[in-house]
Amino acid sequence: MKAIKCTKYGPPEVLQLSEVEKPIPKNNEVLIKIHATAVTASDCVIRGFEMPGNPSFPKKQIMGLMMRLFLGFSKPRNPIIGLVLSGEIESVGKDIKQFKKGDQVYGFTGSTFGTYAEYKCMSNKEIKNGSLVIKPDYISHEEAAAIVYGGVLAMYFMKQGNIQSGKKVLIYGASGAIGTTAVQLARYHGADVTGVCSSSNGELVKSLGASKVIDYTKADAIDELELYDFILDAVGEKKSSKVKTQCKKVLNSQGKYVSVDDNFHKLGPDDLLQLKKLIEAGHIKTVIDRQYPLEQIVEAHKYVDKGHKIGNVVIAV
Question: May I ask the CATH architecture of the domain 150-259?
Answer without folding.
Answer: 3-Layer(aba) Sandwich (3.40)
